[in-house]
Amino acid sequence: MDSLDLLEQRVDRLIDQYRQLASRVQELEAENQQLRQARGEWERLQEEVATLRQERERLKARLSRLLGQLEELGL
Question: Does the pTM of the predicted model rise above 0.85?
Answer without folding.
Answer: no
